[in-house]
Amino acid sequence: MKLLVFSDVHGDKKVIEKIIKKAERDDPDFLVCAGDLTMWGQDTEELISMFKRLNKSLIIIPGNHEEENELKRVCKKYKFIIYLHKACYEVNDFLFFGYGGGGFSRRDHEFESIADKVKKEIKNKKIIMITHAPPYKTELDKIPGLGHVGNESIMKFIKEIRPKILISGHIHDCVGKRGRIRNTVIVNPKKFGDII
Length: 196
Fold this sequence. Notes:
By secondary structure, the protein is of the alpha/beta class. The protein has five helices and 13 strands.
């Protein structure tokens, strides 16, 4: 399966156009947005509709710049959108698990509660995890002068479940970085998207 993953576009239509051109060139099976498509929820519908011409599924979660119910409402208008906040989506032997929102909380009790339910759905599936906040103490969560600002709850889930891939965003200082947590590849996509 080929994915075109991106995050933290923040309403920049020129960046979206470059992502769309990359999708046209590289022909991914899915596009994946790990949050912050908008700048504080502005122009949500216009930005989402830009992807319609690709005729490909876009998996999306909210970032800290989107209000989850508003993003969900807009996403319901489009058949090509898979809104994956606090949910799973199964395709073949893959299970996508998405959890958006967040900021700089070290622990997330709501995530932990949802993760416990997701553990029961896994059943020999290859897990692709999409979060807006990065896992704690990795290549994806370090801000100069502040240190590691990621989420321990997400890190714990990754160590227990060992997804194939974790895609996250949020920390602009870490754009384009990759790493590993045991056998899990972790990615904060480049500005114009990464093919995985």
